[in-house]
Design brief:
Strand 15 and strand 16 form a beta hairpin. This protein has 14 helices and 19 strands. The protein is flat and about 95 Å long. The protein has 418 residues and is an alpha+beta fold. Helix 7 packs antiparallel against helix 8 and helix 12 packs across helix 14. It folds into three domains: 115 residues, no CATH class; 163 residues, Heat Shock Protein 90 (2-Layer Sandwich); 58 residues, Arc Repressor Mutant, subunit A.
């Protein structure tokens, strides 16, 4: 056993452990072992029973409010185990300061974290707080409700039903986020070329309803990763990355992000993938395993999520990860989910069907595009094997019906069959 986010070792009893008690009570609970060195070696206590009484008195006298905890003596090792339970009455303060764990260290929380703890302790969320700006309009929200639900009458009663307007006529932060003149951080989109220094497109959607910002970002995504293929008299839209997966990833980023920080949702578009980064890690009470399995046990912004649900932007609470994975069910490439303390990043790669190709065949197939004819000489610059092997692979792909040609002789060119 070693020190971690939920485990702390103390050789003796001193006030230094009280910061850790504050951290454990504020965030998820944890255990402090007394009579154990930092490296995990057992050194024991001279009087473990007396140490228990000392620890209890120090907690009762120094932590406000007093958290729930248990103490037990391990007689065989002369050590004491202090278990601190996660509390509901946050923040739990030591010397008027709140603490949290950063891996195996205990650090003071910043102003934003302290406010979040205070809200949680009052059973409130940031989206429920009164909006700073009460001069709000909802043309975009009203139009969306009319288009999706056939709602003809949009008034204060509608806003109250959506929990955006209090009985006293005050808008909350969720309303301000959905308002036409939202002052909250929006969505930042960047489309890159072959390197991050090559920016092909940059757009920031801000100062409007989050619904309009969402639609604008989806349109830009379609421009980058969808194209129309005309064959004979038929025109079809090809999605190189599933639009449904991107919509779900972006909606989740907007709905589940932390809105009390001045950071935008970030969409980074690359030739082989798109990344959607959401400010804020997992909500309190949700584990990484629960998030990845689609079992939602906590929601950061339920008012906002309910509006997106009613507008059919998200289908059901907690199904986002599952739906994203389903969109790649028949693809060799799979989405990735990178979770950290301060952000969640969803990586959506280009779709690749499993065609049973060899590695070299797949490389040539991927180099070819369906919209542009390419000569063998251009392909040759991107592969490490010989020209004769490249020619052989192209013939194999043609025989499999995956590649077609145009022209003859030196004018012979190739393209992928979609």
């Amino acid at each position: 056993m070693r020190e971690s986010k939920t485990v702390e070792f103390k050789e003796s009893v001193s006030n230094s452990f009280l910061k850790t008690v504050s951290a454990f009570a504020n965030y998820g609970g944890g255990t402090v072992y007394f009579g154990v060195a930092d490296d995990g070696a057992t050194v024991g206590l001279r009087d473990p029973v007396g140490a228990c009484l000392d620890i209890e008195n120090r907690i009762n006298d120094s932590i406000s409010p007093v958290p729930e905890f248990t103490l037990s003596v391990r007689e065989s090792t002369s050590t004491v185990e202090l278990k601190v339970m996660p509390g509901m009455a946050t923040p739990y303060l030591y010397r008027a300061k709140a603490f949290k764990r950063a891996d195996s260290a205990t650090v003071e929380v910043d102003r934003v974290e302290l406010m979040r703890l205070a809200l949680a302790g009052s059973n409130l969320r940031f989206e429920q707080l009164p909006a700073d700006n009460q001069d709000l309009t909802f043309t975009c929200l009203g139009a969306a409700l009319r288009d999706e639900l056939g709602l003809e009458k949009f008034d204060s009663d509608t806003l109250k039903t959506l929990d955006l307007l209090s009985p006293t006529g005050s808008y909350n932060n969720a309303a301000a986020i959905l308002a036409d003149n939202s002052s909250f951080p929006g969505i930042d989109v960047a489309r890159f070329g072959e390197s991050i220094s090559m920016i092909l497109k940059r757009a920031t959607y801000e100062g409007a309803s989050v619904l309009a910002e969402f639609d604008d970002a989806v349109r830009l995504f379609r421009d980058a990763y969808c194209y129309e293929l005309v064959k004979d008299v038929h025109r079809t839209t090809v999605e190189t990355i599933p639009v449904s997966a991107f919509r779900e990833a972006l909606a989740n980023a907007v709905v589940h992000r932390t809105w009390d920080v001045a950071a935008r949702v970030r969409v980074s578009m690359y030739p082989d993938r798109v990344e959607v980064s959401s400010p804020g890690g997992l909500p309190a009470g949700m584990s990484e395993e629960e998030y990845l399995s689609g079992r939602v046990s906590a929601m950061r912004n339920p008012i906002l999520a309910n509006v997106f649900y009613r507008l059919n932007i998200i289908e059901a609470f907690g199904t986002g990860v599952i739906r994203i994975r389903e969109a790649f069910e028949h693809s060799v490439t799979k989405p990735e989910f990178v979770i950290s303390e301060n952000s969640i990043v969803v990586v959506l790669p280009l779709l690749k069907e499993d065609r049973g190709l060899t590695e070299d065949q797949q490389l040539v197939y991927d180099l070819l595009g369906p919209a542009r004819l390419m000569p063998a000489g251009e392909l040759d610059r991107h592969v490490s094997f010989s020209r004769s092997k490249l020619t052989g692979i192209l013939k194999q792909l043609i025989s499999l019906g995956l590649v077609e040609t145009s022209g003859t002789g030196r004018g012979l060119k190739y393209r992928r069959v979609s």
